[in-house]
Amino acid sequence: MKASPHRSCERGSALITAAVAAAVLAIMVSGVMSYIGSEHVFNIRSHRWTQALHLAEGGIEIGFAELNYQVFRGRNYPSSARGWTSLGGGTYTKTVSNWVDTAGNVVGTISITLSGISSLSPPPTSPYILAVGTCATTPRGPTISRAVKVRLQPSTKFPVAMMSLNKLDLNGNNVYTDSFDSSDPTKSTNGRYDSAKKQANGDIASNDTVTNSVDIGNADIYGTASTGPGGTVKMGKNGSVGPTFVSSDRADTVAAGVAKGWIRNDFKADVPAVTLPTGLSSAANLGNISGNWGFYGSGDYRASGISLSGGDTVTFNGNTRIYVTGNISISGNAKIVIAPGCTLEIYAAGSVAIAGNGVVNTGNTATSCQFYGLPTSTSWSLSGNGVWVGTVYAPQADLSLNGGGANGDMSGSIVAKSITLNGQVQFHYDEALRSGNLANGYNVAQWQALRYEGGSWIAE
Amino acid sequence: MTPQRQPGSAGFTLTEVMVALAVGTVIIAAVLTTYLMSLKGLNAVANYVEIHADGRMAIDWFSRDMRAASGVVSMPNSSNITVSIPTYPGTKTVQYHMNSGKLLRTETVTNSVTSQLAANIYQLDFSLYDRLGNFTTVLASAKGVQVRIRLRKYVMSQIQSEDFLSARLDMRNTL
User: Fold this and answer.
1) Would you say the ipTM is above 0.85?
2) Boundaries of domain holding B124
3) CA B66, CA B60: separation in Å to the nearest integer?
4) Contact B45 A35 (CB under 8 A)
């Protein structure tokens, strides 16, 4: 049988049609596959981009931990035992290779550089950490590195005018808080509070998380009032709050203070217990200090107590540290005098009641008069006729400020378990306490993301 | 004289032609529909790629700025926010705002420079969160800033492609 030529032609057309259709489909499928592939690479790259930043921030935490470790545990240089290598000039590096996640997968490598560590005693004032996070190479994409640079500043034990772990209660009349800066002549006179140069940073805060953690009463807080998470602030009808001296701008209700961000409940501060400095527990024992005393030259001492009454005067003419194992009591017209240019640090294990003419910190700033309450010191009372210029750090003590003469004028900062004001108190926070030698670890002062360009890391 | 059909030149009956036309029409319609659907799908994918890339770039810029920010300067409405960014030394402000479906970024040091980050913006929302992660409207309490961007592309008034991106960033320099 002879095949028809017409039928042969039809078969050829079907083949061509099928081939064209297949080609079109192949192009479409390849397009879709290409898109999916590109999205896959894009997602991996995006994931790595984010991951590299997280690694870098992890490196910042490692640097932070090392510096804080040094501050709290002995003030040595970054330790080679923990992988730090000195590059000289106060610079140290550490590399953490093959950082793994909780599932055991390698995420990447972190390279950390600590700089500005010329000395750790006193702690460096502005060290910085540079951390580079590099993501592990995976198929289909380049390795990605990102960097973060953080400049640090010493965290202070005294971040606000008055800080309590529990309740902060401002009773009394004519109570207010404001601030000055003893290190800035435009904000102080001869390092002392000057009402003509006053500042509105007299913040108060409580770490507590309960209702009415802070009771402003009828006080005027020229600054902010804060509590821990969940805590609330109570304010009387004559009270006010706000970092301004312009009366019309201030908040005279809690609601107004919250609306302006001057009353907040997100405060959290680390308040470590006081530890006795090395050497004080075995220092020369003076017994009970009473009557008239004069300390000439610098030195460390122990005392079983301080009991001053009548016209007793104890004068310090050097840089003195005293560990008082018993109670401290100043009454009548008695006083402690710190001579100009001298310092006094008292570590109290018992109760403290300072009245009379109090502590006369002649011509000095608050850092010259430091009172510390050891964990066994639970009851403190400050009153009297003198002008108080100093710091109190007694995190286990219930402390009352009872005002008194000289208009109840007090400068410096106070940290205690609870603080209660009775009577007339004008408290001036010394902003210079935010820095200096009273370090309590480090805070971030500046945070910068960097990009790699021209062979070095520069700000994004 | 009766006409004779020549061998090999047989024609189609009307029924055959009608059936062939019907089958052909169905096949052509099916092919055309498939083609148009594919074309529409590819177009939708292309549009999605475009708005997704725009959205990602916007989120990336936003993330970079928010991480470096030290505080919220103003937020007159939920689609307009200005933050301050320390530049060591100095400070600059960066504003994110929407105009005619476009997401704009205005950076001000001494002079203002505005750049377009994305088009086809259907919805833009900023919201603030405090240190505890709670929503807040108080600028001074803000630590975190969240952005939600919804991008849409239309073809003949129909929503053809839509993308939704969101991110919440902590302002690292809000101390």
Assistant:
1) no
2) 14-170
3) 10
4) yes
